Amino acid sequence: MTDPRIYDMLADAFHAEDTRLLFTLLGDGNMHWATALEGLGCRLIHARHEHCAVSMAMAAANAGEAVGVASVTCGPGLTQIMTALATAVRAHLPLVVFAGEAPLRQAWYNQEIDQAPFVTATGATYIRAIAPARMADQVREAFFIARQERRPVVIGVPFDLQAQPAPDVKPYQPSTTLLPKLGRMQPDPAQLAEVARAVAAASRVIVVAGRGAKAADAAAACVALADRCGGLLAATLPVRGLFHDHPFDLGVAGGFSSDTARAAFAEADLVLAVGASVTHHTADGGKLWPEARVVQIDSRPIGFNQGRRVADLYLQADARAGVEALLAALPEAPATPGFRSAALAERLQTAPADATPFPARPGLLDPRAVIRRLDAILPRDWEMVNASGHCSYFAAQMRGRPAEHFHTIREFGAIGNGLSYAIGVAAAKPGRPVVLFDGDGGFLMHAQELETVRRHGLPILLCLLNDGAYGSEIHKLRADGLPDVGAVFGRGDLGAVARGFGLDGAVVTDLAGLEAQIARFAETRRGMVLDFHIDDDVTSPVMRRAHPPRAH
C-alpha cells in the first residue's frame, strides 16, 4: 500500500463533510482527487460539460437541502462555470467546487490562468490551497462558508501539489461541529404590536410565503394567520405549491400570477410577506398590489431590494416564530369574511390561469392546453423541474402539487440549465421520476447531457415546449415591429435527438395519445423526450404586459 497523497487527504476531508454525491468532469487537475473520493463510497455523476456539472450540484443542493459538491479541472474547466456560479450566488445555494490549479513546478502550462478573479467576480468565494499543512483547514472553511452563508465556494489546488505525500495533520473536524446552534429569532414587542394593529385594521389580507417560510416550517402558521384574517394565500415561485391543498390558495405571487390571483392582489389592502425577499418579480415591479401596504416578516429584512422599497412595516423574526407571535397578538374574534367567498374558491379551482383567446393553427398545440393535459396525467408525487425562458410561465400554472416536488432556479435569468437541474434532482432523489419542462432553445444549449441521463440510467421525462425559436426574443422582436428571423430556427424532431442518444423520444402534435406515452415512461423509467410542437403565436401574459405591440 502506497503512502497517502494530498489528494487522499483532501478526499477524506470532503467525505467527513458528508459528501456522498459529486458532479464532475474529470481532467488533470481533479481526476486523482475525484477517484479517491469515489473510493470512499461517494457516488459520482460524470457530466459532459463543466457548467452542467455545477448546475447539477446546485439543483441537488436545492432539492436535497445539503451542500452541493462539484469538481472541475483547472483553466478552461474553471472558466466554463461562471454562469452557474453567478446563479448560485444569487439563489443563495450552499455549494463547494473542488477545482484544480495549474502545476506550481512548471515554468509554463498552457491552461494556466489566475482563477480567483473569475470566481470572485461572480460573488463566490475563492480559496487557493497551496500550503499542505493548512489544506484540511481550508476545506473546513469552504464548507463552513457554504453552510453558514449559503454561498458557493471554490477551492483551488495545484494538481502537482495534490500528488505529493500527505502531511501529518491532526484528525479532521468537520464544519458541522462549528456551526452555532441557534433558536428561532423572536420578534420585538413594539414591532409586533405595530404590525398587529395594521393586520387588525385590514380587511383584504394576502399572506405571501417565500423560501424563508418553507425553511422555517412556517406553512401551517401562515395558513392559520390567513384563516384568522379571512385572507388569501400565495407563494413565491421558488416555493410554488406551499399551500397547494388550501381552497384559497392563489398559487404563484408575482409576474406568473394567474388572472384570478392578479385580480385579488389588485384589491388587497395588506400583503404579509413571510420569509420572502419581495423581489422585483414577486411584486411584478410594483404593479401586483398597487393599493396594499406591505409587512415583511423575516429574520434579515433588507428594506430595499432590486431597485424597490420592500415594505412599509417590518417584523424582524424567524418566519414561523414571527407569524405565531402575530397570531397570539391578534384578537380571537371569528374570522371576518374578508376576501373569501364560495365563488372565489370555485374560480381558483376551475378558472384558467390565462383566458386570452388565440386562434388555433393546424398541426400546432396551445402550450396552455399541453400543460393542462400533463397536469391531469402526471402523478402528484413526481418531481417537477421548471426551467427558464418564455415557456416557463405555462408549466408554473400546474395546480395541486406540493412545493417539495417543484424545483426551479431562475435568479440569473439564464436558459440552458433545465436538463442539468433535472439530473441534479434525479441524483439527489434516487429512483424518483423527474419531469422537466423546458423550451427547445434552452434544451439544445446542453443537449449532450442526454448521454449523461442514459449512462447513469436516470428516470427523467423531458417535456419540451418547442416553438422553433428563442421564445422570449421572437415575441419582443415582433412587439417592436422588427424581423424575428434571427431568433427562429425551426422545430425539427427533438424526439429523434433523444433516440440518437439511446433514449425514448417522440414528436407530439396531438394530445390524444399522451397518456399512453407517459404510461410507458412510468413503466420503463427510461429517459424520454416528448417534443410538443407548440404555436409560437401564443404569448404568455408576462410577455404581453412587458412588451405590448407598438403602434406603427
UniProtKB/TrEMBL annotation:
Cofactor(s) needed: thiamine diphosphate; Mg(2+)
The organism's place on the tree of life at top rank: Bacteria
Residue span(s) of domain Thiamine pyrophosphate enzyme central: 192-326
Domain Thiamine pyrophosphate enzyme N-terminal TPP-binding: 7-116
Keyword vocabulary terms for this entry: Metal-binding, Thiamine pyrophosphate, Transferase
UniProt keyword Metal-binding, yes or no: yes
Domain Thiamine pyrophosphate enzyme TPP-binding: 389-531
Family: Belongs to the TPP enzyme family.
Protein name as it appears in the record: Thiamine pyrophosphate-binding protein
Species for this entry: Halodurantibacterium flavum
